[in-house]
Each structure stands twice: as structure tokens, then as C-alpha cells.
Design goal:
The complex is a heterodimer of chains A (297) and B (344).
Chain A: H1 9-28, H2 31-44, H3 49-78, H4 82-95, H5 100-123, H6 148-161, H7 165-178, H8 183-202, H9 206-220, H10 225-249, H11 254-267, H12 272-291
Chain B: H1 3-29, E1 44-48, E2 52-56, H2 63-71, H3 77-84, E3 94-98, E4 107-108, E5 111-113, E6 115-120, E7 122-123, E8 131-132, H4 134-146, E9 150-152, H5 154-161, E10 171-178, H6 181-194, E11 198-202, H7 215-223, E12 227-231, H8 248-270, E13 276-278, H9 286-294, E14 299-301, E15 307-308, E16 320-321, H10 328-333, E17 338-340
Parallel strand pairs in B: 6-10, 6-16, 7-8, 9-10, 10-11, 11-12, 13-14
Antiparallel strand pairs in B: 1-2, 2-3, 4-5, 5-17, 6-15
Classes of the chains: A mainly alpha (297), B alpha/beta (344).
Chain lengths: 297, 344
């Protein structure tokens, strides 16, 4: 192991280099770094009174400068100049990194600044953008150009694709309302919604699929022919299914049959069989009501 | 050479003479054995007090071995590196080991240290604004690893904000919102490769949907020691908005459920210790912050971009979104690790 021995010039060299470094820091005004270097120099050469004197001198300068800066910062704070107060407190910490008062004031200012920033941000929100219904008709001003609107839209798209339909659709509605001229954007949204509908239909969830088809058309602002064809076919299927279910329960549960046939007609107004059965069932139900008004159905 | 320097040199020499004598005595008592190779990595102590140790590095010394020896923890290697402005130890170089954390807040005449919290969402080959491709994520993590950035945990950031612990100069936090399955499939292997920690903010209603993480996947990631799971609300509703005709009491009750629901779920399903909360859409108001505090959540994360200095308000931390469209240059620009001031 290479060991610095008696008279090893390396030790003297280290002290000399650190002494020069301390002076450079001192001259540049970095008092904290200068104090550290003088501390190390005195540690390496504790017998040298000149070094100890230098350290004491820098420490005294730090103390004076810190007091000045704290007073300056407090004065700025009192006159409401938070930027000047922040700058003064940061300067105080730069010379005196452990100063508790400067850190406390900075935290206080930053808390107020962050709270005001968030309050402003929230004030620009439109409740309906987030699926919260409201009677307010006039759109608010666009949000600040901090990427938040794009974020909200993209977040909605991601949530929707991930299966969070409610949040996704709320975001889509917001985008379409606030960007009525962005036809490409509307189409992209509508396509995504329609595609999700197709997926649900393929999984046998026809009713949910139909709702998404309707949403897609509303968001798109028009009904492309292929979509119309797909919707008509689904309506027919759903109408037939509901009609069949009504037939199954007709003899044992008339009110349930009526609900099924109402749904069948609602899905597919062209389902005349369901319409006829519904009319017939309602007449029977009416007759039964007249015969026994208190009977449970 | 001044008399004082000579005294120091004599003291160093005396120390080594004593050590050598002790070594020779030990050799004389020990049974004969083959000559040991020259011992490496035992820097000579030039001076020390309660604040500093000054050593002369030997061959084999590293920042890690010095930290292990003098600070009792190799993970504190960066204390020495940052203080001396070096990435590695060179033999013959004098190294100052600060025994106490210096400048915990990272304030310098030219500016102040800030910690960027990066916010990801989803990963996949279909790039979109909120979906980052695996290749881009790998490149971004690679960039951090190769350029001296330290990915720290949110818990470490909490200690920094409370003034308890300093942080490496180029500290970065990685967070991932919502709880997409692609975190497990794409991001986690990359994070594990680099041994980078990350915090996932989960909205609990998402679990069970096709693209969401499962509890089992979350447990596995947590077991790695790299991943923390923290709450991001129950339903991802914007917590700052009141419903029509909702009274103040009803609103607060709803917000309470949005915060307490996922906290309880994370505790019971994962044994997690929630201490932070990412606001859906990044929005927060005073009632939300107040309910957070009442539930013991110390950190709140917005999506207001920028870095966080030590004095950042912990309940409204800045967080910078990383988008699918970010290239290497825009990613680098988002790594705000230092804010310049006119502090000189």
C-alpha cells in the first residue's frame, strides 16, 4: 500500500491545492464551499493558525450574510413580493445550508404558490368534461396550454380502450363539445367507440353494444352506411330475442312478457309480431285489472 | 514544507509505523503461511473529525468501499461522489468523506436541486399520447442509467422533502398511473433489468377489467422490492368537482370514499402502506388535500410539470408526463434536476 510517509510531498500538495480552492470559493462568493475547504485544510494541518483564522473569518462572513439575507427576505415577504423573498431565502441557504428559518419561509411561500396554481386550474374545469352533468350551457374558456386538455383526451381514450367505458365516454363528449371543428378527432373517437361496440356484440352483449353504436353515431355527428347496416341487424336480433323471451313467459308472467315485447318493439319498430303480441297482452292485462284491481301481477 | 505540514506528515508516518509494528507482531505469532498479496483498497486516513474523513485513495478503493468503510453503507457512495464531484475513485487522489449529510436541501449559489417525478401510463407497441412503446421506455431507462441519474423511490423523496435526507444530485422518480397490465408485461422487466424502483398509482375500480393489472401481478412486482403500489382514487373521478345538487357534506363523503376505498383495498389485498396519492387528472382542491392528510397520506401528486425542490408543498407535487410522442431530446428536457436562480 502506498503510504504517505514523513516528508511526503503529496500531503503538502493536497493542503496547498485545497487552500487555493478555498480562496477561489471565497472570492467567488460561495462561502459555504469555502468554509468546508478551510475546515478540511485545518483538519489536515491543525497547527497552522493562519488556516484557523481563515476558517473563522469565513464563518463570521457566513453569519453576517445569512442575517442580512434573512432580513431582506422577511421584508420582501411583508410587502408581498414572494419572488424576491424566495430569492433571498435561497441565497441564505446557499451560504448557510442548514438555516431552518430560510427553509421554513420557502416552504410557506411554495405552499401558497402551489395552492393558488391548483385553485386556478380547478377553476377552469368544466364539470361536464368529467361526466358531471350540469345546466351550464356556455362553454368555459379553453384550459391553460399546459398539456392538460390533451392529457384529458388521451387519458379518456386510454381508459376507454382499457374497458373503463364511463370515464372514457365522458372524456370523448368533452372533446367533441370543445373541438367541434376537429372532424378527424371526432371520427377517431367514434371509430373507437363503434369498434368497442362490435367487440361487445361478438361477445354476446348486444344491448351494451347497441348503446355504444348509438354513442358512436352521436359523437360522429353522422351515420356511416356500414354502421347503419350493423345497427339495424343488431336491432333486429335483439328485437327477435326479446320477442322470443316474451313468448316463453307469456302464459305464466304477463307483465314480464309485456316488458319483453316493449323492449322488442323498442329495439326493432319493424317487428310487427312483437307489436301485435304487445297490443294483445296489454288488452288482456287491462281486462284483468278491471276484473281484479288488487291482484298482483 | 511548513512546520505544521511536517507535523502532519510525521503523524501519518507514525500511524503507519504503529500499524506496521502491530502487523509484524501478528505475523510472528501466526503460523507460517504463504505471503499474502498486497492488500488493496484500504485508503490511508490523512485526517478526520466528526464532520469529515480525508483519505488518500489506494488501488482497489471505490466510492462504494469508502462508503461502506466510513459511512457504514455502500449505498451512500453518492455522498462521497457528489461531494468530491467525481464518478470514480482514482488511486493517489485525496478524497473527502462527509460523515454527516451536507447541504440536505441541495441549494447552491447558482440554483437549487429539483427532483422530477416522471409520470407514465401505458406501454405497448401501438404508440399513442399516453402509451409509450417498449423500445422508447427501454431507451429512456437506459439513458437514465448511462448518464448518472439515480432513480429513487417516492419514500426517499418524502424524506428529502421533510428535510431528513439528502438526495443524489440527479435524482428522478418514476411513477406509472392507473394500473394497466402492460406495466407488468412491459415496464416491469425493464425496470428490473436496471434495478430502478417505480411507484404504481392504481385506481381500484380498474382491477378486474381486461387491461388492468391483477392483484397477483401487483404482489409479484412488490415482492421484487422495486415497486410500490399507491392509491389513485377508487373510480378515477375528478375529485375537485361537485355533483349537481350535492351538498358540501355529501361531496366530502364521496371524496372520502374515493380516497379511503383504494387505501383500504391496497392494505387488505397487498399489505401495502399507502402514504401518497396521485390525483385523477392531476386536480386537487383544499377539501381533497385535507382528507388526504386525515388519512395519513403525506404526498399528493398533480400533473403540473416541473421538478420539485426540497421546499415543494408535499400535497401538491409537480409531476411531468412522459408521452408516447416524446423523443430522446424531449425526454432529456423533462429531466429537471436543477433550477437555476440568481442566488449568487
Amino acid at each position: 500500500m502506498a503510504t504517505p510517509g514523513r516528508g511526503d510531498p503529496r500531503v503538502a500538495g493536497i493542503i496547498e491545492r485545497r487552500r487555493e480552492l478555498a480562496l477561489r470559493y471565497q472570492q467567488s462568493g460561495d462561502l459555504a464551499a469555502a468554509a468546508n475547504e478551510w475546515h478540511i485544510v485545518t483538519l489536515l494541518d491543525p497547527g497552522d493558525a493562519a488556516y484557523r483564522q481563515q476558517l473563522a473569518s469565513v464563518q463570521a462572513a457566513i453569519s453576517r450574510r445569512t442575517t442580512e439575507l434573512l432580513e431582506s427576505g422577511q421584508a420582501a415577504l411583508k410587502r408581498g413580493d414572494n419572488d424576491a423573498a424566495t430569492e433571498a431565502m435561497l441565497k441564505a441557504l446557499a451560504v448557510s445550508p442548514d438555516n431552518v428559518e430560510a427553509a421554513r419561509v420557502l416552504r410557506e411561500i411554495e405552499k401558497r404558490r402551489a395552492t393558488r396554481l391548483q385553485t386556478d386550474r380547478v377553476a377552469r374545469l368544466r364539470p361536464e368534461d368529467y361526466g358531471v352533468p350540469t345546466a351550464r350551457a356556455v362553454p368555459s374558456a379553453p384550459r391553460a396550454p399546459d398539456g392538460s386538455r390533451a392529457y384529458d383526451f388521451d387519458q379518456s381514450m386510454e381508459l376507454f380502450r382499457a374497458g373503463d367505458t364511463a370515464n372514457g365516454l365522458a372524456g370523448f363528449r368533452r372533446y367533441v363539445e370543445t373541438n367541434p371543428s376537429d372532424k378527424a378527432g371526432r371520427q377517431q373517437i367514434a371509430n373507437a367507440v363503434f369498434e368497442r361496440g362490435r367487440e361487445l356484440e361478438a361477445q354476446g352483449q348486444g344491448a351494451q353494444a347497441l348503446r355504444l353504436y348509438e354513442q358512436a353515431i352521436a359523437l360522429n355527428g353522422a351515420t356511416p352506411a356500414p354502421w347503419d347496416t350493423q345497427m339495424r341487424a343488431l336491432r333486429k336480433t335483439l328485437g327477435t330475442d326479446a320477442y322470443d323471451k316474451g313468448l316463453k313467459v307469456y302464459r305464466t308472467d304477463l307483465p314480464a312478457a309485456i316488458k319483453y315485447w316493449e323492449a322488442a318493439v323498442d329495439y326493432d319498430p319493424a317487428n310487427t309480431a312483437a307489436a301485435l303480441k304487445l297490443r294483445e297482452a296489454k288488452m288482456i292485462d287491462e281486462r284483468l285489472r278491471r276484473l281484479d284491481p288488487n291482484a298482483k301481477r | 514544507m511548513s512546520p505544521s505540514v511536517r507535523r502532519l506528515a510525521e503523524r501519518v508516518a507514525l500511524g503507519f509505523a504503529v500499524a506496521a509494528a502491530f502487523f509484524l507482531q501478528a505475523c510472528s505469532l501466526a503460523p507460517p503461511r504463504e505471503a499474502a498479496p498486497a492488500r488493496e483498497g484500504a485508503a490511508a486516513v490523512l485526517a478526520r473529525d466528526r464532520d469529515f474523513v480525508v483519505v488518500l485513495a489506494e488501488k482497489g478503493d471505490t466510492l462504494g468501499t469508502l462508503a461502506e468503510r466510513y459511512l457504514g453503507d455502500a449505498a451512500k457512495a453518492w455522498w462521497i461522489g457528489d461531494y468530491n464531484g467525481i464518478d470514480e475513485v482514482k488511486p493517489g487522489r485525496d478524497i473527502v468523506v462527509p460523515l454527516q449529510p451536507r447541504n440536505i436541501g441541495g441549494v447552491y449559489p447558482g440554483g437549487v436541486q429539483t427532483v422530477p417525478i416522471l409520470c407514465y401510463h401505458r406501454f405497448g407497441s401501438n404508440r399513442s399520447k399516453l402509451s409509450v412503446t417498449p423500445a422508447a421506455f427501454e431507451q429512456q431507462m437506459e439513458y437514465l442509467a448511462k448518464n448518472g441519474y439515480r432513480v429513487i423511490t417516492l419514500s426517499q423523496l418524502a424524506a428529502f422533502l421533510s428535510g431528513r435526507e439528502p438526495l443524489p444530485k440527479k435524482s428522478v422518480v418514476v411513477t406509472i398511473d392507473d394500473g394497466y397490465r402492460s406495466i407488468y408485461e412491459i415496464a416491469f422487466p425493464i425496470l428490473r433489468k436496471h434495478q430502478f424502483p417505480a411507484t404504481i398509482f392504481l385506481y381500484s375500480d380498474f382491477v378486474g377489467l381486461p387491461d388492468a393489472l391483477t392483484w397477483t401481478q401487483m404482489q409479484e412486482m412488490m415482492r421484487s422490492g422495486l415497486v410500490e403500489i399507491q392509491p389513485h382514487s377508487k373510480s378515477h373521478a375528478n375529485l375537485t368537482l361537485k355533483l349537481p345538487k350535492e351538498s358540501e357534506a355529501q361531496y366530502r363523503e364521496r371524496v372520502r370514499n374515493e380516497i379511503e376505498g383504494p387505501v383500504a383495498a391496497l392494505k387488505s389485498r397487498l399489505g401495502a402502506t399507502p402514504f401518497s396519492f396521485a390525483f385523477p387528472y392531476g386536480d386537487v382542491n383544499e377539501p381533497v388535500a385535507e382528507i388526504l392528510t386525515r388519512n395519513g397520506l403525506r404526498l399528493g401528486l398533480t400533473v403540473t410539470p416541473g421538478g420539485n425542490p426540497f421546499y415543494a408543498y408535499p400535497l401538491m407535487l409537480r409531476r411531468t408526463m412522459i408521452f408516447g410522442e416524446d423523443d430522446a431530446a424531449s425526454f432529456r428536457a423533462k429531466l429537471a434536476v436543477f433550477a437555476r436562480t440568481g442566488a449568487r
